[in-house]
Amino acid sequence: MSQLTICLIIFAVTIIGYCSGKLSLATFAISSLTALSLTGCLDAKTALGYFANGNVIMIAGMCIVAAGFNRTAFCMTVANKISSMSKENMTKMVMGYVLIGMILSQFVQSPVAVFGIVAPMLAASAESMGVKSSKVMFSLGVTTIVTCCTLPVGAGATIAAELNGYLESYGYLNYTVGLLDPMKARLPMLIICVLYCGFIAPRFAPDEPVIGGELKEMKKAAAKAPLNTFQEYAGIFIFFGDAIALMFARQMGLENWQVTLIGALLMVWCGVLKPKEATAAIPVSMLLLIVGALGIAGEIGHTTIDYCGPRCECGNYGCLEMYCSLLVFKKNIRTRLAKGEESCVREEYEKKGFLTQSMLKNAMEKGDSLVREEFDKMCEYLAVGIINVINQLNPEIVIIGDSLAEIGGEYMLTKIKRKIQER
């Protein structure tokens, strides 16, 4: 039996387990991760690395920060104010928080972080109205995910530029994405989501939490003696400082997980939470579910081919896609042209100001030495990535697509086959 077949079986069993409800989702997720590792479908070091994934650490840190803010009297005061403004009407209260979550999601490019910022006050408002948090949290969670970066402000303002970069890299130059175009496409969904989550979703949400154990522990952690003046102000400043830092993390040169981790440590160092309370605030089942899901959803583009290579946006170093993609191919050629090296694409490149797929394809057909040298490098790296897949999954067939294959398909295939045979 091939490893690809084994992977598919493990995946199918995991989905069935999720749907059965016999055990927690986290149990099935970690079981599948373990099975993938033991059967050789997933490298042991890679599997272990998922426990240190940036999103996992960010969620843990944000939950601790939220638990610390929950302990402040200020949190309950704000929650009571919002409850009184909504005149004890749950629908108005939920809609208010849904709108807050939607607005913050335009500036913080992480639904989990936004949820962590708003959830403490929402939970406190629900409690002051005698409503279970399970009735309102689903609405907030869905809103932060669906509406993230919809409007052309904050992180959403960069989406048009990213899409234009993709179009240019694939040679589609007849159309340019305008600043408002992504918003026009997604705005109807934002409106539908806000209305649904504000008015309809709470009616169908469960009356009691589905996972009661951890929520009870978190409530115990929050139900302690009142904080002293220093701890009260520290909890407030750390929480809002964390929220603001998440909005400007990129400009500060920090990752989101670093911001929330710093906030979590400050909550403990300042005495807002005791170490045991901070530990109790971490949603272990949720984090294990994410770790297991990451194992199932691994990508060949993020397999490491050089441990000392450049850092990828996924947080890893030396990922395959940092060496083998059309964007990297064009970047390398532009760099060599800027150094004065000769190529048949120079004249057309200097006229247009950018490289197109057709220019590179013609250069390959003419046997241009500069373009072929860079293309050979792409083939070398891609061959290493394919060899990794063959060793892990033993697939019966490997299909190579993308624009690189269109530039020099047969040439690429010959190079890769030779490299695989050598290995």
Care to give the gist of this entry?
It contains 22 helices and no strands. It is mostly helical.
3D architecture notes:
With 423 residues, this protein is mainly alpha-helical. 68% of the residues lie in helices and 0% in strands. The protein is built from 22 helices and no strands. The longest helix is centred in the C-terminal third of the chain and has 25 residues, at 369-393. The radius of gyration is 26 Å and the shape is globular. The model has no long low-confidence stretch (mean pLDDT 80).
Oligomeric organization of the protein chains: single chain
**Uncertain residue ranges:** none
Determine the strand fraction and express it as a percent band.
Answer: under 5%
Query: For the CA atoms, what is the radius of gyration?
Result: 26 Å
- The rough form would be described as globular
Structural class: mainly alpha
Could you describe the largest sheet, including whether it forms a barrel? none
Mean pLDDT score: 80
Order of helices and strands: HHHHHHHHHHHHHHHHHHHHHH
- Helix-residue proportion: 55-70%
- The helix count comes to 22
Strands, total number: 0
Q: Please give the alpha-carbon distance between the first and last residues.
A: 23 Å
